[in-house]
Amino acid sequence: MSTTPPESAAQIAASTPPGWFRRAAQSDILYSFRRSPIAMVAAFVTAVLVLAAVFAPFIAPYNPFDPSSLNLMDGFTPPMSSSFAGNYFLLGSDNQGRDVLSTILYGSRVSLFVGISATLFALTLGTALGLAAGYAGGRIDSVIMRIADIQLSFPAILIALLIFGIARGIIPPSRQEGMAIAVLILAIGLSNWAQFARTVRGATMVERQKDYVSAARIMGVGRFTILFRHVLPNTLGPVLVIATIGLALAIIEEATLSFLGVGVPPTQPSLGTLIRIGQQFLFSGEWWILFFPAVTLIALALAVNLLGDWLRDALNPRLR
Amino acid sequence: MAAPLLSIRDLTVEFHLRRGIFTAVDGVSFDIAPGEILGVVGESGAGKSMTGSAIIGLIDRPGRISRGEILFQGKPIQNLPVEEMNRLRGKKIGMVFQDPLTSLNPLYTIGHQLVETIRRHLPMTQEQARERAIALLGEAGIPSPAERIDSYPHQFSGGMRQRVVISLALAAEPDLIIADEPTSALDVSVQAQIIKVLKRLCESRGAAVMLITHDMGVIAETANRMIVMNRGKIVETGSVGDVIKRPREDYTQRLIKAIPSIRDETIRHAVPAADRPLVEVDKLTCDFMLSKSTLDRLLGGARSKTIRAVNEVSFSIPKGSTYGLVGESGSGKSTCARMMVGLIRPTGGRVLLDGDDVWAPGAGSQKRRRRVQMIFQDPYASLNPRWMVGDIIAEPIRALKLASNRAEIEDRVADLLERVRLDPASMKKFPHEFSGGQRQRIAIARALSSQPEFIVCDEPTSALDVSVQAQVLELMRKLQDEYGLTYLLISHNLAVVRQMADNVGVLHGGVLVENGPVDQIFDDPQASYTRMLLDAVPDISRVN
């Protein structure tokens, strides 16, 4: 008696282990991606915006934060026209004569940096606490999850404002400017960890009951090894989905805080700061100062959100 | 033969999938005569359930009937509009599905569901329908049906619920019943009763039955004629006696040969006599605490209830032998296993391995990790889907630090894969690339990799098809001879235990009711429970 004969064509195809590239090319995720026009457009928009932000210093026609290049004579130039000083502005310029396109490029850099860092922070914290709660159960679980419940009953922006306020009280004024971005990341991250903790806890409770965990326990594998090598990798699917949607939320949250004036310092404007500045000129006719940063923020948040939605459907076997 | 009730001609069901067209049912033709019981047998993926679904028009996208005809009482029904099909289902064709938990609506009483079904198809008043429902339940073997008719589904046990489902299927006097694995979710003793009920009711009402099952024993005891299916095609058709006793086709012969029978006596190697058994279980007891509700906890009132899952169970296993532990669901056999491997701490009693208590801190538990391994029932849940097979098999080696050199570990894994008859190149693949039987081999390789002496096998083959089961059991036996392994084999399948075990214990409600050499237990059972259990097993040798 030898091995059972291969049962399907798929198994024959799989009899030689393909490289990671072919594995990825044949994967269901990629297949579902190629069949979803919305996902492809969203991915394209996200990629363009992220690349533009990353390479802002090379792409931007002006450096809007270099005081020596600023010329008040350039102020309030409408889009696609040249100023009195003879400089051309594709998306117009603001009151101080800064190029709107360049401020957007530099601004989305700050927005994306804060958004991604805050999401990674929330992900790490939430996943660690969720794993601990789900695996330990009992009192540890109760304490962690009740804190999460309390926090979820407040709007995230309120929590972020609270943390921001506390940080202001603690940090000496001379250092506030330098630490503003770090505080912002901390505030947004702390206001979003509970979602991750809830999801990871649920997935952990399911996985820890499975026989492969029992098998590891029988052979005396340590608790932490089981958690990190067995349980964690199996909970990461939903975490990835929340992280993507959470990224969009974090970017908006940062914009909201900056719009309210408690976010990033004026020397490093983010999209939210640009919108706050532009908002003053909306009714006096200089619409472009507000309009283009706002459109960029919407496009970025929407594209990331749509990607997250698609990822959730693609990873959910029931919807396939 | 009279005109057939149901006639299927060249039925083909295809699924249009991303990787091409999958033909689930391929040119199947057969007839069912009025009042006949036709058994359809085959392994998973044979297309037997799909044939049943096609008849009642329940094939979901992306599947569709691409060819062929389904004639019911002479009229084609495969292209009926939804409404007419709905009328046909229930009125003319009744259905019984595998899972009695999900085929009844939990929100309505069974009486409500029966009366509703009866009145939809038959011109009856509420009272007449209710009377009929009570009569039906009585015939299906529900004790005092007049009182139980107003109970909700959750107030019945699994077997009782399946009786209700059968009465529901028969409520409108259908001419044909399609029963898809009607007893597979039930314990053997209940299974036997349900088969009898199904057979008796259909006979008394003249309904034909298409009985779909993977269990040849059930067919042998129930059906008149049978169809053997494999990979969407009919392999063999004939009377049950002919097919089972004189199978013509190669596939059928192999299938029947693979089925263990409780009457088989296998020749075993004499177990070398040892001074002391390898494993001793001494008055093992396990209580489960039912958690109190939050309100009770706050009030501090009601004492928490405990359930005794395992009650003072004692037995011993000589080195190199197999001990079979049998019992129905809820008898405590899995709990016993989990206490022996160190997953559940016993409430009382001891498990001794070579004289050391496996639950004692230090030497005892250290020894347990080195020398005890377990094989689980579900080969899909017992392998981490994110790990490569090589890492899965090497896990015990790494966990117990038996080897640390990369090349050495790889050599060992390759050797183990060969021993369980898998290609060593499988190391670099993931579990989802393997079939159920192959996964169970991987699980066996993992259990062997720490070179244990004692392996606890909890229902190792019950998730597998019979032919695969035979291969896995054969492999287990060979490995036992090679390595001198000692097994604890837990199974609800008595035939498997008879084939594999040297000694047998029968668990019932947490108590070991009988314990002794396998032949003695099977040929001359002392406890009445054991006798009942043995009588209930459907067996292909009972065909007349």
Short description:
Chain A has helices at residues 9-13, 20-26, 28-34, 37-54, 56-59, 100-136, 138-152, 156-170, 173-190, 193-207, 211-218, 223-260, 271-279, 288-315; strands spanning 81-82, 88-89. Chain A has 320 residues and is an all-alpha fold. Chain A has a domain at 99-319: MetI-like fold (Orthogonal Bundle), CATH 1.10.3720.10.
**How much helix, percentage-wise, in residues of chain B?**
25-40%
DSSP strand count of chain A: 2
CATH superfamily of the largest domain in chain B: P-loop containing nucleotide triphosphate hydrolases
Contiguous runs where pLDDT drops below 50 for at least 5 residues of chain A: 1-17
Secondary structure tally: strands of chain B: 20
Structural class of chain A comes to: mainly alpha
Strand proportion of chain A: under 5%
Structure description:
The complex is a heterodimer of chains A (320) and B (544). By secondary structure, chain A is an all-alpha fold. Chain A has a domain at 99-319: Orthogonal Bundle (MetI-like fold). In chain A, 70% of the residues lie in helices and 1% in strands. Chain A is built from 14 helices and two strands, in the order αααααββααααααααα. A two-stranded antiparallel ribbon of chain A has the order 1-2. In chain A, a hairpin with a 5-residue loop joins β1 (81-82) and β2. In chain A, α6 (100-136) packs across α9 and α11 (211-218) packs across α12 (223-260). The longest helix of chain A has 38 residues, at 223-260. Chain A is globular, with a radius of gyration of 24 Å. The two termini of chain A are 38 Å apart. Chain B is of the alpha/beta class. Chain B folds into two domains: 6-103 and 173-258, P-loop containing nucleotide triphosphate hydrolases (Rossmann fold), CATH 3.40.50; 279-538, Rossmann fold (3-Layer(aba) Sandwich), CATH 3.40.50.300. Chain B is 37% helix and 25% strand. Chain B is built from 20 helices and 20 strands. In chain B, the strands form four sheets. Chain B has a six-stranded mixed sheet, sandwiched between helices. A six-stranded mixed sheet of chain B has the order 16-17-18-13-19-20, with helices on both faces. Chain B has a four-stranded antiparallel sheet with strand order 2-1-4-5. The longest helix of chain B is centred in the middle third of the chain and has 18 residues, at 188-205. Chain B is globular and about 75 Å long. The two termini of chain B are 22 Å apart. In chain B, 46% of the residues are buried. The mean pLDDT of chain B is 86. At the A-B interface, α1, α11 and α12 of A face β16, α14, α16 and α17 of B.
